[in-house]
Amino acid sequence: MELVILLLIRSFREANFFLYCQSLAELIPYFFANNNVNYARWLPIHYRDMVTLEQKHPQLAQEFQSGNFVVHKSSRQFSAMAIDQAHEQANAVIKADGVRSGVTEDPSALRRWMIAGPEVSHLVAQYEAACGTKEGTEHTSHHEETERAQRVFFENVGKLSQAMKDMGNPFQEESRDLLSLDTKDIAHHTAAELIGTHLEKGKVRFQEFMKGLEGEEESTFYEPIKKNRVDFFRQVPASVDSSKQKVLKEDCQLFSKLFISCQSRECDLKEFFRHENQSHPAALSDGGKLHTCQKSHLTTILESQVTTPEAEPDADTIIIDGAALVNSLPPRSSKTFEEYAMLDVLPTIQAYSTKYKRTDIVFDVYRPSSLKAETRSKQGRGVRRRVTGKGKIPSNWRNFLRENDNKAELFNFLADKIARLATPNVVIVTKEEDAVSNRTINLAGVAPCSHEEADTRIFVHARHATEAGSKVIMVKASDTDVVIIAVSVLQALQELGLQQLWVAFGQGQHLRWVPVHDLCCTLAEKSKGMLFFHAFTGCDVVSAFRGKGKKSAWQTWDVCDEASGVFSKLSQYPPVVDDEDLKTLEKFVVMMYDRSSTAEGVDDARLDMFARKQRPYEAIPPTRSALKQHVKRAAYQAGCIWSQSTVRQPETQTPANWGWTKKGDLWQIVWTELPPIAESCQQLTKCGCKSECCSRCKCYCFGLTCTALCSCRCEV
User: Fold this and answer.
1) By CB distance 3.0 to 4.6 Å, which of 288, 343, 637, 701 could disulfide with 280?
2) Most confident of 182-191, 362-371, 625-634
3) Domain boundary pick from 97, 124, 144
4) How far apart are alpha carbons 414 and 323 in whole angstroms?
């Protein structure tokens, strides 16, 4: 667009009419594409007048083609200007005396003014020059040719050159990403696809607008111009549940149909409650998305089982969740990523060298086909910004860390800096699937590693440190998953020689140290089933039960001892879910929702709680079919992922067999195997017969009588 504007300016300077019309034709589509509706509406009128000038006014067209569409008011270089601009300057000369006031209200006066105004202005200018009120001699030099203007120009060039040396040349970017030159914000990859069609959309709308003007219909000109709603650097907000009201409305309609059908048909209510109202269960989802809970409540429950120290305990190795470290260290005075590494991150890591013999920093790996994609999408998407040493720190640090590509580049950048850090102790840091160290040591036990989450990869490093002779390990993280996994792997680490395992949980004043070795002794047999229990009651990739948090589930486990065996079994690899396990888990869920219920299965409990105890529909358990898929997802997370936390290259199974289905690059949840009740229950059928029913009537085909829901009204 800047090139088109330069061509337009050049056409004025050179008094080239053809170049002027060509520039207009290329410029106007940009106004349609960029939503400049006023220019988009009026410039086509001007363009149409110009291109039809030769047919309507041949003599005027000849003058224009001769270059007489601009005005040269002086002999200065580049002083040509548009005629309307010259008119404005002529008006300004006379307007100061008040002569022009009200002239536009009288048509005859306006015509006289348009003819005499420029000449009057010219005479006024000659009189002022003769009287000496203005300088009578003209200077042909340009105002930017003065010594001071040239000095300022060279100073600005020097500053720009120095800025490119300091921050990098914006025209020599390594990648072909679409980015803002000043902030270095990178547009989303979908914006690059839109760029190719952005101008084409403007051209199409320009052509449509011009066709409408050919009919000489005023209505076409005054019709609203549709905006092109494209913002290439727009941030995607966190996902919002907008379907809740819609689901509630559909549920009300469904139960209305059920009530009316029960009046004249023998409805099987047990069959009705075997199906979910929607394609996603109300007890496990928020409008088709994961229903989450407060995972930290489980950590609070576990802390109450042991005594936590008031001061930080001694340890010889510390393993840090890198993502949590970066989140806890926002830039203070740093301007670039290089300064952030040198002033904020590296001093923090160096401080650990005086207390620990070994420091491990473990970063997450971000893959496009991750099961956590939905959980991360709820946080929204930040502005993409390339991470380089001279790159500027974004003003909104939290928003920057919402983008997975930003974090991946930042973690790799910090890993390179940490690996060159001079410390008296050994420092190991992960970089994607590999690991690097500031000392020459054998890293075969930690790299290459196929774990995606730092929550599990931490314990690959814990095993490596234990095999290297560590007796007491401190894990610094702020995720409940780490505490639960630590409980499950402690026995394996103790067999290798580990004596104590601590988890530093929380931040700032809320930091506390959980003694995992004491916790396992207190939990006894429950420690073997903690993985599945945590996943089953809600984690990052498995939904939680609506209205039933970690506390309710823990209390139910205290009174349902038979669930311990199933929890322990499904916490081990490879997990196998059979019918007996599902029956036990059904009983556990029924007890969690209603301790006094005598129902053995969730389908019977749903009918009893909804019909007899008048519970809201979202406050009853999910169907057996939905619960089965939920159990499979929890078993996959606990038995396939978490249980192999100390294995560098764990054996994994495809999530397609464990409650997910893949669409494109993303895994989507399979909520239930049965269709919604409205699609499967024949008793809810209604016909659309106009008058009397016939052999094609839906109700007749299913052997049902018509109800008040039917259009034929045959039940009356």
Assistant:
1) 288
2) 625-634
3) 144
4) 11
